[in-house]
Amino acid sequence: MPLCRVCNTTYEPFINFGPMPIANCFQLPEEQPEEYRFDLTVGVCPKCSMVQLVDQPEPERMFHENYAYFSSISRSMAHHFKEFAEMVRTERLNEPNPFVVELGSNDGIMLRHFADWGVRHLGVEPSANVAAAAREKGVNTLCAFFNEATAQSILAEHGPADAILAANVMCHIPTLHSVIEGFTTLLKPSGVIMYEDPYLGDIISRNSYDQIYDEHVFYFSLRSVGELFGMHGFELVDAIPQEVHGGSMRYVLARKGAHKPTARLQELLEAEGRLNLGTLATYDAFRGRVELSRENLVSTLKELKAQGKRVLGYGATSKSTTVLNYCGIGTDLIDFISDTTPTKQGRLTPGSRIPVRPYADFQASLPDVALLFAWNHGKEIIANEHTFQQGGGKWLLYVPEVEILS
Length: 406
Known about the structure:
The chain is an alpha/beta fold and 406 residues long.
């Protein structure tokens, strides 16, 4: 049996999605099909409650000079990160000449606000292309993976950090102990760590199994975060639920005794306890719902095809890789997927090899049904697609359950 990456306890997997390609490996049509696959299997540790991938590809396979995700593409995410930055500035930067560090800073979507405010900052971003995009926006960015050695280097050049931030990043890192050791080195005694990631409670309750893919090695709960950081002398002092990425949690941590835990944290811990995230029966039930979702989605697509309906995908997301490959969906059921990300357009989806085309192609050839892979931006997307809907177009959703919006 595998060993927990957090506490070294043996655990049993509870779901296997089968051989899976790299979620962001969008290839050109003339390229040979991606041969690399890994076994996408998930388990939960009985001791520390950490839900995690059994195996994960090497970081260099996932984060590189051709990485396809740029945060600034989404207007809703731009607004979200502005709010995050303003919260940090007003509530957590209380000392003169503060210094903010962000892990996985992407194209600088959050740190650019600190740059505009004249706040000392540094992004640590391992993907060269998005790090370069951040620098072009005036955001100080180091292209590297964060660890103890990186923290020592930053400390020597810039001094200690008042706040260390991360958004949809910590769940990507298999070697979290080395990262947290870096936090211990770099963070001021009174400083805070603030990070947000998809919340396990939302994944289970919303049946959003597509949150599970190669980049997400950990699926955090309040309890598992407390266990992990407690091993390094930190404690949770607050937590703030977020709607982004289909349901996330913003965790606020500090050195033990440095800040008083909030009443909100206690309420959230009690609510989490009612979800029974520490029992294997919860995950067995989740697996059953996932298998039913696959069956219903495939049967719905086949029925639409039999009716002569034309189906297009909307949003060539990382999450869609799990859905397409787990469900065995290809060009026999979906003609192409529309996406606004230039680096994905003209390429093929990983494994399933469905063409990804510009949004203009969706507008020029409106389908009968759009399968919404970017469901976490659903409100924003559906509100903007007046022409599609007025022409009789319908949305096919699969989170929390498979349904066609009429």
